[in-house]
Write a structure and sequence with these properties.
Layout lengths: L5 H16 L5 H4 L3 H12 L1 H10 L6 E4 L6 H9 L5 E5 L5 E3 L2 E2 H6 L5 E7 L8 E14 L9 E10 L10 E6 L6 H27 L10 H27 L11 H10 L11 H10 L14 H23 L9
Parallel strand pairs: 1-2
Antiparallel strand pairs: 2-8, 3-4, 5-6, 6-7, 7-8
Helix pairs in contact: 1-3, 7-8, 8-10, 9-11, 10-11
Length: about 325
């Protein structure tokens, strides 16, 4: 592979060697020190390609959201040098020095409250969903630890800190960095919603990778892989969407997301008669997930994407059989 630059080619070879030595490790663990880690993220993020995409999509707002591993000053400096072709929002990992004995997080936390946001924090690892109320603060800061020739970066640091958290529960506090300037509560809330969407994105790619197993594709060309990924993205979106809507809009009719044969199949496979009233989306999602290993006990909460994608395979196979029998002129009582 020729990247058109001898330095990039050399970097690519070194990255390949490091990752081959530790194929199951994270990038920081596989890399030989902080310098290699930063260089790897710069190559993967590829701000030049993002800048090209921004030019190709003038009517679309591009946003890059990252967790703590993306809090790399060199990446921000490069994006700033390119004129910020894509809006950046990353979770702050480093409480940087920003002045004489002053620290980034402390400076922002001392600012006046600009507003509040409320949302429901989903249940996880035995933790029940709960309402979170955060106070929002922001301050434009100059970031520069003096080791890079590219100069300082002007960033806005946001702090969303929970108030009135339940006793014995660690308050939810997010410290975020963005290139965007903010001065109102609405602007900060928009950025917080961007960051909260990160979990939905991770869920989508979890389904794409582990449910659809796209990494196991053995196709002969890049174009074929791209077409397959496009289709699998739709499949992954549907599964992730089912999980989310089943939780947030449980009373929606199941017919919005499932065809009649799929609804019948789910009831037959779980040994339940078809209800007199059309089933709700939540009932259907739970029934599908039960076919994938979800126990549906009183304290189990709502099913996750894994049990849904396993259950969907059984439902779609059964529904395909029902359609075949119908076309062949056969009937099967409750599924005719």
């Amino acid at each position: 592979m020729d990247l058109g630059d001898k330095r990039l080619n050399k970097r690519l070879v070194k990255m390949a060697q490091q990752w081959a030595d530790k194929p199951t490790q994270s990038i920081p663990t596989a890399a030989d020190g902080w310098g290699d880690t930063a260089a790897a993220y710069r190559m993967l993020d590829n701000d030049e390609r993002l800048a090209e995409r921004a030019v190709d999509l003038p009517q679309m707002r591009l946003v890059q959201v990252g967790d703590r591993e993306s809090d790399i000053l060199g990446l921000m400096q490069r994006a700033q040098a390119l004129g910020w072709p894509v809006d950046l929002l990353v979770r702050s990992q480093h409480n940087r020095v920003v002045g004489d004995k002053k620290y980034l997080w402390d400076e922002v936390s001392a600012e006046a409250v600009l507003g509040e946001i409320q949302f429901t924090l989903g249940g996880r690892d035995g933790r029940k969903p709960r309402l979170v109320r955060q106070q929002l603060r922001a301050k434009r800061m100059r970031l520069d630890h003096g080791k890079h020739a590219d100069g300082a970066v002007e960033m806005t640091c946001l702090v969303a800190s929970e108030v009135d958290a339940p006793a014995g529960v660690k308050p939810v506090c997010w410290r975020l960095l963005t290139n965007r300037e903010v001065s109102t509560s609405a602007q900060i809330i928009e950025l917080i919603e961007w960051y909260r969407a990160r979990w939905e994105i991770e869920m989508l790619f979890n389904v794409l990778k582990n449910g659809c197993r796209v990494e196991a594709l053995q196709l002969a060309s890049l174009e074929k892989i791209e077409r397959a990924l496009t289709l699998f993205m739709v499949v992954s979106w549907r599964i992730a969407r089912l999980m989310r809507l089943g939780r947030t809009c449980p009373e929606l009719p199941a017919a919005l997301m499932f065809d009649p044969d799929e609804i019948r199949a789910a009831h037959v496979l779980t040994n339940k008669p078809m209800p007199k009233e059309p089933p709700s989306l939540n009932d259907m999602v739970r029934r599908v997930a039960m076919l994938g290993g979800f126990l549906a006990r009183k304290g189990d909460g709502e099913p996750g994407v894994k049990t849904i994608w396993i259950g969907l395979q059984r439902v779609t196979d059964f529904a395909a059989g029902v359609r075949f029998m119908r076309l062949s002129g056969h009937t099967l009582g409750c599924v005719s």
